[in-house]
Amino acid sequence: MFRITITLIGLFLFLSCETDQKDPQLIIDKAIKVSGGSNYDQFELEFDFRKRHYISKRDFGTFTYQRITRDSIGEIRDTYSSQEPFRRIINGVDVAVPDSLSQRIENSINSVNYFVLLPYGLNDEAVNKTYLGEVVIRGENYQKIKVTFSEEGGGDDFEDIFTYWIHSETNVVDYLAYQFFTNGGGLRFREAYNPRTINGIRFVDYNNYKPKSKGIDLTELDQAFEKGELELLSKIETENISVVNQ
């Protein structure tokens, strides 16, 4: 009887462990924890991306984003927050812009911050997660997670679909892919490189790929990458990163 009880307990623990390993929420939770955890709650982040300077502040449920562009006419500062509407300031003077333009700028700033701060953001209320199984990429095991967005709270591009490959042992996001539908749509696959941790938050750069031919599904991009069926489109590099924990 004792042996039977021990066997049943062992089986229960094994099945529980198997279930945990396939739970997309737990997998994402681990990824966020190892990449920043509570350091994401309050911080001030500055970085350069494609010749623009960004300042991002987070204080639990509130945020403030700024994008600064400097050119021959001076400084353009675009800013908005969870509490204040969009403002464009050129050389210290507020300038009115159409709502359509301000929305496009906000979307662009949101997108830059989304990728820079990954996997933070994958627990937003509008995010829906699905476990797609365990796969092998370049000899390493990964948990494959599909992410979609609810229309409410999902932003203008809520129809975009993402896939994340999270290392089964280190719990970091080494690869991601997404399907977008604006401007004709398309597929992208990103390979993380140059990982570094600054004041407790992990950052990476990306090799950005696209399929060499049509007919490849989003969920097949990992296989296409292994077979050399993707071509390098660009490098996504975040520079001069500075983090101040509040």
CATH fold description: outer membrane lipoprotein receptor (LolB), chain A
What is the arithmetic mean of pLDDT?
A: 91
Report helical residue fraction.
Answer: 10-25%
CATH architectural grouping: Clam
Q: What structural class do you assign from the helix and strand content?
A: alpha+beta
* SSE succession: HHEEEEEEHEEEEEEHEE
- Can you summarize the main beta sheet? 7 strands, antiparallel
Please report the distance between the alpha carbons of the first and last residues: 56 Å
- Going across the major beta sheet, what is the strand order? 6-5-4-3-2-1-14
| Shape call | globular
Q: Poorly predicted ranges (pLDDT <50, ≥5 residues)?
A: none
Beta-strand percent range = over 45%
Tell how many strands the DSSP assignment holds: 14
Radius of gyration: 21 Å
Q: What is the domain total for the residues? A: 1
- By CATH reckoning, the class would read Mainly Beta
The count of helical stretches stands at: 4
